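Protein modeling request. Please complete all fields; requests missing the sequence field cannot be processed.
Requester role: graduate student
Desired output: 3D structure, token encoding
Chains: 1
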Amino acid sequence: MEKIKVLIIDDSAVMRRFLTDTLSRSPRIEVVGSAIDPFIAVNKIKMLKPDVLTLDVEMPRMDGLTFLSKLMIASPMPVIMVSTLTEQGADVTLKALHLGAVDFMLKPAIDNEKEVQDFSRLIMEKVFMASQVKMSGRRAAPRLEVEEKFSADIILAKRDPLKTKVRSEQIVAIGASTGGTEVIDEILVSLPDTVPGIVITQHMPEKFTDAFANRVNTKTKILVREGKHGDRLYRGMALIAPGGRHMLLRADSNGYYIEVNDGPPVNRHKPSVDVLFRSVSQAAGRAATGILCTGMGNDGAAGLLEMKDAGAYTVGQNEASCIVYGMPREAMKLGATCEERDIGGIIDFIKNIQ
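Delivered output (354 residues):
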């Protein structure tokens, strides 16, 4: 099997060595070189012809965003941004995703064994995924043998869908991962302020979800913000699950509201789409619409099936419009989707929900 060639671009010698050692543990990955800044990287890209780049956000002589914008014009290729867990790092990373980066990783604390282990596993998965992304005409990510973690049962017990109270107020639930920020952005900016309330789980860490919600909110007719515990959900509003915590939809006599839960990761994610979708199936039943968008892995597939079983209409993003046709593919295989649509079709569907 031909190895995936990776070029590491980072001004930190410690991080370059760490990334090199980490990725080199995989027999399917070859680190072909490293560069301390984009100027050196340009020559190495021409010489080494890597399949995937890892790119630091902050570097001397030319920052990562400037380099990325030039790269995507001159020679588009899969790029994984490597950033820090700061508000500034979150904002820059979101801009990088908008410019064409495939995904991002947070730099771990090198002296924290758990962070290093989690980072090592995830960076390999993302390199495998990125190597399969065509910058035009994208295709599915490869199957990976990954560590299993808790199901949604650890947060919310499964319930007989026939016991769900019938509600009239419509609700839309959206789940996404890799490539999802741009898809969610495109969907939300296209909606009128009369649409039903929307709850969203996008796989992102803390600080990033608030920055993402604020960024999208500046462009939309609807109100978009990070969900807070106890928030009420109304028409013309979208709440995004806070990074590092699960978000659940609840209902009472006054309508829908949000519960934030700090339980363990589900499907290796926190927030988890399965947790949100299960809660929506129980709170809204057939008054809900479930939409599962681009992403790596299977989070959301089982939850979407529970929504369908409870009477909700369910939509998967189609393969042609996905950066990674992983999560929607798994949902389709389970029989969880009523239909698949491209992004424009998803937007039209939401607009027509009364």
